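I'll show one example:
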Amino acid sequence: MRYIGFFIIVILATAAHFLVTVVVVLFLLSTLNIVNHTMFHMANLERVEILLTAVIFLMSAFIFIQSFKKMVRSIKNIFFGGSLQ
């Protein structure tokens, strides 16, 4: 039963990381559209938006993969006292 709780917490933490990334992407893209509308008037903004989105998601995935082991260890220590047995 402890394994089920552990995996649920890991999945929730992973989903939270993904949702924060989505919010950051949406915020940056809306800011880019506002700045473009008022200052730059670029016609092919879609390519810049796709590139920016891909770069942000790749950076987020890289950071998440690097910190995943530490996150799992922290979840074990905080919620389960260091062991799942």
Remarks:
- The mean pLDDT is 91.
- Residues 2-40 form the longest helix (39 residues).
- DSSP finds two helices and no strands in the chain.
- The radius of gyration is 18 Å.
